[in-house]
Write a structure and sequence with these properties.
About 25% of the residues lie in helices and about 35% in strands. The strands form nine sheets. It has a nine-stranded antiparallel sheet, covered by helices on one side. It has an eight-stranded antiparallel sheet with strand order 14-13-10-11-12-15-22-20. A five-stranded parallel sheet has the order 3-2-1-4-5.
């Protein structure tokens, strides 16, 4: 066994590999880009080497930089994780040239399975069922169009190289065929540097089922049962489970036989996965591709078999025999994995960036994560931040356990897919195991929307009850205030700076009891802090604990049903409103809130018209344009860009035109 391991990856998979390597007594080496200098995988490793700027093509995808890091630290082996260089022949060849152990299969397996065209030919020779299609040498558009018509629409046009849903287009109508071929070819060339395509018959309403393989360098190849990865969005897996639900034993055995047969055909000698597309109605399955690496979803196989796939992979790479025979591998219970991503699922899964301010996962679920409090999620890499895995004695127990785990996971600072995953697990079709790759599109034909609840109300309560450690500029907004022990007024009105039309008034009625009002009705409720970061709210006799974190002008609130952030701004009571009306005299352009002067758009002596913007301010990240209420001439300018001012501060003094005075 080698004594040191360089992990040529980042995020949760780098952390996952480092944990097992350290358990085995290996010295661990991480690599990192400029964006990952303070990342968790860097802190976990015994040593770490900087390999370049944030863009992956200038760091994690540079074979030369990975090999140089190995030379610099004296690493004896390299584990590629998944993605990045995990299936790139260059790194395998580099390891061989440098005398390093490559933790993965031999080069021929990678190259033969790396091309879907070549892989399909080998699978056919191994007797593995394949989807009818075209994988010929003639790659002209005309040849692909002709093949599609011969196969019969609908068809799937897909890139020969790579995976992850890139370079794939489903075509249902002849008029769309040529455009789909062009688009798939461009995307394939951009993503994989290989624009070759194949055309296959489209299996309608399919399931995605895969078999985990494990081989060694002594000719042994076994399977570690199957997984179902049918819950996908844009061909990207979201929920995975083992074993696959609703399969007959005959189908399972046929899947195992096909996968192991292909593994033996190519002399497979590491962890790998043979993927199949299955007709949900008939159970008929076809070879899709083989991934010659560790899979993201390997965790569910580990949970039901009790095996550490990373440890087995490392031992095989070191030349050790498996030490396992097929009859000694058992599948006990059921496991489901949810991929938690930094995306706003209610806004078309828009990627989210920012700093993680709160991160806590309950202990009853496994969490493979590469983040913690303070971790920065940027736009340079994949949006997945963690995998949550639940193991139960049966599928229903695992499903319920994972739902509870997601509901009790606390994350603030950016939006995640936490509630979306919970909702997907709660659907009747998922509960019944009646899932296909069209599941999400069929379940939410328009779009998934988060049930936000009244999150602004909770944010206002938290803001209002939070003790002020020192004098706040927000306290200068009004005239007379009845200030209480917490430093807040007894009666105040708040808005969300991002949506100032949303207002909530709050008035203390008794100790810990308040009257609150929104745009219409008022209600009475009780609210008190249980502990820092936990607000207890009682409404209509029902108590609920709301997670709260106030940072950088935003109030983050969360519960099992929602995550939200509001920029809460206090407008003040009636006296404050009167004060603002006074400071907003026509000849005085005054700050309506404490904030920063961003720009002054006029000069002294300039003539201005009513409605013309004179000053731009920023307050709580909200840009405000301060306009002239009447025509006149700029008599004096009292602020310059960059000034921090309080509410009511005079910024521009006007001399009003005749007829505008009074």
């Amino acid at each position: 066994m080698f004594d040191s391991l360089l992990v040529a990856n980042r995020g949760e998979i780098a952390c996952r590999i480092i944990r097992t390597a350290r358990k085995m007594g290996l010295r661990t080496i991480a690599v990192f880009s400029e964006a990952d200098r303070d990342a968790l995988h860097v802190r976990m490793a015994d040593q770490a080497v900087a390999i370049g700027p944030a863009p992956a093509r200038e760091s994690y995808l540079c074979t030369d930089k990975i090999l140089e890091a190995a030379r610099l630290t004296g690493a004896q082996a390299i584990h590629p994780g998944y993605g990045f260089l995990s299936e790139q022949p260059d790194l395998v060849e580099g390891c061989t040239a440098e005398g390093l152990v490559w933790v993965g299969p031999h080069l021929d397996a990678i190259t033969s399975m790396g091309s879907k065209i070549a892989a399909k030919k080998i699978a056919l020779k191994a007797g593995v069922p394949c989807i009818p299609g075209y994988a010929g040498e003639d790659q002209s558009d005309a040849a692909l169009v002709a093949a599609a018509h011969e196969i019969g629409l609908p068809v799937m046009v897909k890139a020969s190289a790579g995976g992850g849903g890139k370079g794939m287009r489903a075509v249902f109508e002849p008029i769309d065929l040529e455009a789909a071929i062009r688009a798939a070819r461009i995307e394939a060339a951009r993503s994989f540097g290989d624009d070759r395509l194949l055309v296959e018959k489209l299996v309608r309403n399919p399931r995605h089922v895969e078999v985990q393989l494990l081989g060694d360098k002594h000719g042994n190849v076994i399977h570690l049962f199957e997984r179902d990865c049918s819950v996908q969005r844009n061909h990207q897996k979201i929920l995975e489970e083992a074993p696959a639900p609703n399969l007959t034993e005959a189908t399972r055995e046929a899947l195992f036989e096909a996968a192991v047969g292909l593994g033996r055909k190519i002399g497979y000698d590491s962890t790998g996965t043979v993927e199949f597309v299955m007709d949900a109605a008939t159970g008929e399955f076809f070879f899709l591709e083989m991934n010659t690496r560790l899979q993201v979803e390997h965790t569910v196989t580990e949970e039901v078999t009790g095996l550490d796939l990373v440890e087995l992979q490392l031992r095989v790479a070191a030349g050790e025999p498996l030490g396992l025979t097929q009859d000694r591998v058992t599948c006990v219970g059921h496991a489901i994995e949810a991929r938690l991503t930094a995306e706003d699922a209610s806004d078309g899964f828009r990627p989210e960036t920012g700093t993680i301010l709160k991160w806590q996962v309950p202990e009853n679920v496994r969490c493979d994560s590469g983040v913690g409090i303070g971790s920065i999620v940027g736009s340079s890499y994949d949006s997945m931040i963690a995998k949550l895995i639940a193991l139960g004695p049966d599928r229903e127990a695992a499903r319920r356990k994972l739902i509870a785990g997601l509901e009790r996971t606390e994350v603030a600072g950016l939006r995640t897919t936490r509630q979306f995953l919970r909702d997907a697990l709660q659907t009747k079709r998922f509960q019944a195991g009646e899932i296909t790759t069209d599941f999400l599109r069929q379940e939410w034909r328009e779009a998934w929307r988060q049930a936000h609840g009244e999150t602004l109300l909770y944010a206002v309560l938290a803001h209002h009850l939070a003790p002020l450690k020192k004098t706040s500029p927000w306290q200068t907004l009004g005239g007379f205030r009845l200030l209480e022990r917490a430093g807040r007024s007894a009666h105040a009105v708040y808005v969300d700076a991002k949506a100032p039309e949303n207002r909530i008034s709050i008035q203390r009625e008794a100790e810990n009891r308040f009257v609150v009002g929104g745009t219409s009705d008022e209600e009475r409720l009780a609210a008190t802090w249980l502990a820092p970061g936990a607000l207890r709210v009682e409404r209509n006799g029902v108590q609920e604990t709301i997670g709260v974190l106030i940072s950088d002008g935003s109030v983050h609130v969360w519960s099992k049903d929602f995550d939200a952030a509001h920029q809460v701004v206090q407008l003040g009571n009636y006296d404050a409103a009167q004060h603002q009306e006074t400071t907003a005299a026509p000849d005085r352009i005054a700050a309506t809130m404490p904030g920063l002067v961003v720009n002054v758009l006029v000069e002294q002596g300039a003539a201005v018209a009513a409605g013309e913007t004179l000053v731009v301010m920023e307050s709580m990240k909200l840009l405000m344009e301060l306009k002239a209420l009447a025509a006149g001439t700029v008599a004096s300018i009292r602020a310059v860009p960059g000034d921090s001012v309080e509410a009511g501060a005079l910024l521009v003094q006007l001399e009003l035109d005749e007829g505008q005075r009074g």
